[in-house]
Automatic annotation (TrEMBL):
Family: Belongs to the TolB family.
Signal sequence region: none
Coiled coil: none
Source species: Sanguibacter gelidistatuariae
Protein name: WD40-like Beta Propeller Repeat
Alphabetized SUPFAM superfamilies for the sequence: DPP6 N-terminal domain-like (SSF82171)
């Protein structure tokens, strides 16, 4: 069942200049819980999900327009765009990843059938558009096991890059295709307390990028590869829940971390690659609640 807004709640899409801090409210709705903006490669539109569907929103003006997904089952907030802007790759509630033509109605399933207890959660695409990075979730009798995988965007054999019991999520390629960034609890001695990491795109030694008291999720490298934007949850948060006071943060290449915005959000705020192609702005979603409603 797709997420719904609470009574008195709105979904607000913002555009924020990471240098000046100037923030613009682009879209607000109290009728549909929109999530996870992708910025189109031409810089003209945002792609978001909501109510199991995919939508296009002009960066500067225009209404929210639904994109035809053909016979793809309801989708969640894990989606990326091909570098040429022709396709969206989406994670469906049936556990698979699909390719959807953004003009026309062509759709196809990308992922392989690994049984009913395995689900694919998409987060990244290589800069040449040939590989998808996803989190593979195995559903076990006593919980779940998540690891980082890649699969050809055209379909083909999966490659498993991590093989352990540490909770991992948010696998995304660097702009040069050399690294995969992700969040993980592998540095924690207790459940929760995810931090940010990276590893070579073909697998290998894992490098920790953040080490603080907050819970850090979904690293998104800037187009020039010199910084990361991510969402930071309060100490003690388990997973990446909705409706939390969170901080959208930026980590510079020298390790300096600065706050970009404080907001009520979390799940859906910035799950997917959301940089403007020129690296000037990011897009994200807040979910304020009018408690008097």
């Amino acid at each position: 069942m797709p997420r719904q807004l609470r009574p008195g709640q709105r979904a607000e899409i913002y555009l924020l200049d990471v240098t000046s801090g100037h923030k613009t409210l682009r879209f607000s709705t109290d009728s549909i819980l929109v999530e996870a903006p992708n910025w189109s490669p031409d810089g003209r539109s945002l792609i978001v999900n909501g109510d199991g569907h995919l939508f296009r929103l002009g960066v500067d003006t225009g209404p929210l327009e639904q994109i035809d997904l053909g016979d793809v089952p309801d989708i969640n907030n894990d989606h990326v765009l091909s570098p040429d802007g022709r396709f969206a790759y989406v994670s469906s509630d049936d556990g698979h990843i699909y390719a959807v033509a953004l003009t026309g109605t062509d759709t196809r399933r990308v992922t392989n059938d690994r049984g009913p207890d395995f689900r694919h959660y998409l987060h990244g695409i290589s800069p040449d558009g040939t590989l998808l990075a996803y989190i593979g979730m195995q559903i076990l009798d006593d919980g779940v096991r998540t690891n980082v995988y890649t699969v050809p965007a055209a379909g083909g054999q999966d490659i498993q890059l991590t093989d352990d019991d540490f909770p991992d999520d948010g696998a995304e390629f660097s702009p040069d295709g050399q690294w995969i960034y992700f969040n993980s609890e592998r540095a924690s001695t207790a459940p929760g307390h995810a931090q940010l990491f990276r590893m070579p795109a073909a697998g290998g030694t894992i490098e920790q990028l953040t080490d603080d008291e907050r819970v850090n999720w979904f690293p998104h490298p800037a187009p020039d590869g010199r910084s990361l934007v991510y969402v930071s949850f309060p100490l003690g948060t388990l997973g990446h829940p909705a409706d939390k006071d969170v901080i959208v943060r930026l980590r510079d290449e020298d390790g300096t971390i600065r706050d970009l915005d404080h907001l009520f959000g979390g799940q859906g705020t910035i799950n997917v690659p959301s940089w403007e192609p020129n690296g000037t702005r990011i897009a994200f979603v807040a979910y304020p609640v009018d408690h008097a409603a």
